[in-house]
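Task: sequence design from structure.
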């Protein structure tokens, strides 16, 4: 009897689990439909309504509403109808069918003189950084374009005060050659009114009443640099009396007593490139096995509307249960977590330049991640689930920023470890009290009673990119935890293989974790001998010795690029100083996007001209997996132009401009938004710049404190000096 009841209980449990699994699968099916429709309309629909949703940060709420509907509406037909309710107002020409039934007809559109369509270089994700990424609509102006406006003060003078309000009248003379130029008068950057400007010489009048307590008036013009616009003051009157001014700017500082206005004069965005979507171009895509959707990639419009017209006055989906996207607690919302997953997936399928997934593989990645996210129970589980997704894209420029988690891993034991062949060895000891307990070269085999393999897996799963880069980044965190927390380390003595344990506290922070794997104690710029100069390119600006050695053919300069180049050197003209001949190269490829299926990589030649064409010193360059991004560009030119020899291991293979996607919960994701090839046309991503002399570190190097890369460079330099003497 008992066995029968127990068997029945087990059957009930299994049935419940099966039903739950099936429900989750159907929920994910609906989320997939929503994800594809939301992403395509957000990034490719050219309507004013979609731009309106962007302007008012409505997409977060649209995503939350769509996900909530996917959870509530279990029937595909009912859910398809809800998708129409969400997206039809944004894209009136949306057409949806399952082959038997047309769920949404494309509304009839009237013709007009203007054609509105999208052009994109990468994706401008409205983070405010731009960094070369641009998303525009032809015959419209992007909100982000105002970042590039050039500000010019055209009036800054004292206004005589008699203790009364004063009426000021100003005639502004302007000249514009482009069509659709508008002037927006603003107060504290808020628009007061807008007026169009004709494309010929003309004048417009501004009238202000200046309060009695304000003694100065200032007007600044903000103008598009790519438009031919000029403005100047034609006349200036106070209370009807014309005032003759020798200068309309007396150069004095404005203050709280200044009557200030801004005058924005701008036009539509200029085309980013020649190719354009035309009327009739349509994006077709599948939402599920049965349901397909389409909408036009170009629509007619006038100066005020795109066609078909739609009103957003009562559109309800730009409000949701999400209170504040910048509140770290927002991520506790289950739907917000799913929304972030879908946002990442959409952006990466469109604009991640190293995306090699097929459509089926991309769909499966999203399905797997959504399935895992449904079972997430904590913020750290959420963090790790996002990282599991991001790791699949294999990009060292991928970082997922979530301060509520990362703040718990900013401090380490006062020891620096180095990865070698999958293991971690003590490289440096930062606390003298530990010097009698721990030896350089001892192997870490457990942290806080967890095997090093488990600890490694945890932090390695929070990285992306090449294997060498992932292990290097993992080494930064294997000893990490909360500030001041105890850490128990189990180590293996390098001399006798005995295992011992120490307990210390996490009281140390690396000042420059990206300064490479090198354990050389002295990275100061210095003379190795009278003819060889060592220069740490990652930390230094120019030195007199460096400049003197570069143009002396009897000398050798060893550049250490293990790490990231200092900002001072990034802005320098170092390449031109090392060249003898002009080098023309091509390595950076921007992604021009018209639709998911119409993308093209384009690049311009970069020309490097020598500062002088005289004889040069012999150059060596030290590199390893920590050599990433800008230093890789430098090394690529050195190799391509045969400027010197590279010694070490391949660089990180992570170069190009980084794009940034802000997410709900005060979190963000970065990724490579520009494709990079080495200048010889070969792959750079994950491979990097390969050395001419392959030299890697060994455990013996750690034990002896030797730097085999530097030693090789010095050896080659001395061989050359000996040959020159003979």
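Answer:
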């Amino acid at each position: 009897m008992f066995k029968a009841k127990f068997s029945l209980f087990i059957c009930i449990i299994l049935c419940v689990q099966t039903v739950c699994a099936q429900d989750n699968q159907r929920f994910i099916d609906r989320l997939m439909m929503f994800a594809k429709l939301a992403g395509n309309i957000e990034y490719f629909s050219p309507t004013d309504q979609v731009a309106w949703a962007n302007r008012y940060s409505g997409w977060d709420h649209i995503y939350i509403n769509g996900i909530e509907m996917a959870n509530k509406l279990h029937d595909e037909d009912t859910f398809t109808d809800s998708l129409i309710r969400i997206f039809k107002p944004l894209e009136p020409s949306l057409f949806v069918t399952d082959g038997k039934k047309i769920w949404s007809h494309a509304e009839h559109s009237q013709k007009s003189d203007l054609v509105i369509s999208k052009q994109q270089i990468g994706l401008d994700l409205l983070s405010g950084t731009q960094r070369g990424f641009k998303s525009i609509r032809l015959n419209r102006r992007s909100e982000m374009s105002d970042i590039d406006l050039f500000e010019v003060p055209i009036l800054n003078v004292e206004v005589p005060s008699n203790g009364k309000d004063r009426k000021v009248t100003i005639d502004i003379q302007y000249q514009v050659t482009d069509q659709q130029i508008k002037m927006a008068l603003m107060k504290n950057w808020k628009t007061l009114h807008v007026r169009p400007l004709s494309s010929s010489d003309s004048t417009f009048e501004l009238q202000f009443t200046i309060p009695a307590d304000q003694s100065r008036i200032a007007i600044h013009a903000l103008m598009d640099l790519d438009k031919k616009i000029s403005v100047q003051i034609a006349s200036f009157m106070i209370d009807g009396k014309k005032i003759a001014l020798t200068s309309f700017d007396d150069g004095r500082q404005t203050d709280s007593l200044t009557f200030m206005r801004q005058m924005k004069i701008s036009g539509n965005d200029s085309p980013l490139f020649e190719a354009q979507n035309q009327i009739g171009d349509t994006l077709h895509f599948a939402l599920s096995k049965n349901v397909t959707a389409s909408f036009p990639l170009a629509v007619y419009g006038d100066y005020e509307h795109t066609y078909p017209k739609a009103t957003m006055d009562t559109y309800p989906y730009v409000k949701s249960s999400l209170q504040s996207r910048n509140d770290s607690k927002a991520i506790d919302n289950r739907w917000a977590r799913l929304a972030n997953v879908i946002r990442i997936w959409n952006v990466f399928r469109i604009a991640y330049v190293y995306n090699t997934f097929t459509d089926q593989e991309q769909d499966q990645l999203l399905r797997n991640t959504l399935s895992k996210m449904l079972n997430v129970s904590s913020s750290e589980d959420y963090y790790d689930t996002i990282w599991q997704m991001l790791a699949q894209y294999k990009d060292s420029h991928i970082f997922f920023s979530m301060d509520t988690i990362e703040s718990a891993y900013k401090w380490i034991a006062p020891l620096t470890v180095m990865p070698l062949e999958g293991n971690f060895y003590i490289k440096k000891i930062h606390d003298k009290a530990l010097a009698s307990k721990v030896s350089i070269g001892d192997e870490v085999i457990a942290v806080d009673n967890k095997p090093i393999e488990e600890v490694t897996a945890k932090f390695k799963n929070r990285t992306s990119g090449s294997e060498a880069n992932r292990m290097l980044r993992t080494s930064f965190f294997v000893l990490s935890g909360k500030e001041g927390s105890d850490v128990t380390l189990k180590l293996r003595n390098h001399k006798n293989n005995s295992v011992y344990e120490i307990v210390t506290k996490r009281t140390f922070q690396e000042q420059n974790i990206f300064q490479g794997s090198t354990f050389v104690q002295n990275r100061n710029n210095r003379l190795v001998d009278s003819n060889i100069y060592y220069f740490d390119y990652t930390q230094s600006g120019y030195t007199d010795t460096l400049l003197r050695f570069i143009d002396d053919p009897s000398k050798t300069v060893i550049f250490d690029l293990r790490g990231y180049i200092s900002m001072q050197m990034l802005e320098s003209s170092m390449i031109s100083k090392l060249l003898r001949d002009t080098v023309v190269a091509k390595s950076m490829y921007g992604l021009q996007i018209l639709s998911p299926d119409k993308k093209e990589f384009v690049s311009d030649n970069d020309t490097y001209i020598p500062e002088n064409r005289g004889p040069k010193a012999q150059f060596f360059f030290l590199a390893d997996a920590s050599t990433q991004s800008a230093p890789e560009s430098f090394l690529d030119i050195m190799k391509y132009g045969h400027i010197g020899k590279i010694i070490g291991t391949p660089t990180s293979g992570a170069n190009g401009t980084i794009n940034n996607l802000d997410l709900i919960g005060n979190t963000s994701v970065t990724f490579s938004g520009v494709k990079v090839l080495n200048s010889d046309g070969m792959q750079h991503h994950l491979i990097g710049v390969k050395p001419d002399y392959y030299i890697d570190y060994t455990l013996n190097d750690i034990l002896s404190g030797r730097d085999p890369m530097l030693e090789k460079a010095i050896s080659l330099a001395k061989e050359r000096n000996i040959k020159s003497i003979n």
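Residues 19 and 468 are 44 Å apart (CA to CA).
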